[in-house]
């Protein structure tokens, strides 16, 4: 097997991980995102797989901007009276 095939498989695996990042523990998400930005996106760029590189970067930046999603959606005021 050629070495670049293994790299492409690693890129696909990382992309799948980022697509399902919400299944990881909240404190693991920023680590995965940082690894992706520092290692996997440059590898995809070197292999000239720009579609994969762009998606890796977009998903990693989204995790870095919002490391943990809110646990509950924001509540709206209700018509209930407070006692």
Textual characterization of the structure:
The model has no long low-confidence stretch (mean pLDDT 84). The chain has helices at 3-19, 29-46, 50-65. It is elongated and about 65 Å long. The chain has 83 residues and is mostly helical. It is 61% helix and 0% strand. It is built from 3 helices and no strands. It has one domain.
Mean pLDDT: 84
Total DSSP helices: 3
Which percent band covers the strand fraction? under 5%
Rg computed from alpha carbons, rounded to a whole number of angstroms: 18 Å
Structural class comes to: mainly alpha
In total, how many beta strands? 0
Domain tally = 1
Looking at the structure, what is the overall shape? elongated
Distance between the termini: 71 Å
Sheet with most strands: none
**Poorly predicted parts:** none
Helix content range: 55-70%
What order do the helices and strands follow?
A: HHH
Short description, anyone?
The protein contains three helices and no strands. By secondary structure, the protein is mainly alpha-helical.
